[in-house]
Amino acid sequence: MLKIGIAEDDPKIAELLKSALEENDYQVLTVSNGIDALDLFLSESFNLLVIDVMMPGLNGIQLCKHLRKNTLHTPILMLTAMGTIDDKVTGLEAGADDYLVKPFHLKELLARVSALLRRQPPIEMPTDHKLYFEDLILDTYSKEASRANKPIELSAKEFILLELFMRNPNRLLSRQFIAEQAWDISFETGTNVIDVYINFLRKKIEKGFDRKLIHTKINMGYILK
């Protein structure tokens, strides 16, 4: 199934696009601001991206430039309420492959999506199943971890936590985010289970090493750096 990412801050439009594309057998992920879109589009593989110009965080033009600067070649369909020639040129020069002005008919959107996908060879999913950070290696197939070639024995939850950090290096992860991703629950301020497990993980990946990797930002969360 082909995978499409949508960056659109209007929830009604985002849901309309998602429903229309899913009805046509596409897998769809949506985000509502440019910062989250940048993280998602660089961390996962997509066959096509649909990006609105007017968004909080990063606007569509800025997002498109950042994606192309990171050598992302996924085709991009840009949506905007601004339909002058100069607006279209700006979007295309930022790296968009096509430009659709709001309001638009869903039939036209689907036709443009189909046309863009026909131009692209199918995306090959990454075959590399190893994550690297400094001298730390995590094998997501064998579920093995090592640092400086020294094996590290991790519990299932510790492995999930470490994978979460290594997929988000140099990014501050809040306790809420960690709870949702690693436990699939909402964070309860009265519990210290996240802090306890992170301390377990720290002891295993930092014991015997001078350089610490997981750092605490007080009242904010944790960061792998």
Automatic annotation (TrEMBL):
It comes from the Bacteria. This is DNA-binding response regulator, OmpR family, contains REC and winged-helix (WHTH) domain. Coiled coil: none annotated. The modification 4-aspartylphosphate is found at D52. Residues 128-225 form the OmpR/PhoB-type domain. GO terms for biological process: regulation of DNA-templated transcription. GO terms for molecular function: phosphorelay response regulator activity; transcription cis-regulatory region binding. It comes from Pedobacter terrae. Keywords: DNA-binding, Phosphoprotein, Transcription, Transcription regulation, Two-component regulatory system. Residues 3-117 form the Response regulatory domain. PROSITE patterns: OMPR_PHOB, RESPONSE_REGULATORY. Residues 128-225 bind DNA. Gene3D superfamilies: 3.40.50.2300, 6.10.250.690, Winged helix-like DNA-binding domain superfamily/Winged helix DNA-binding domain.
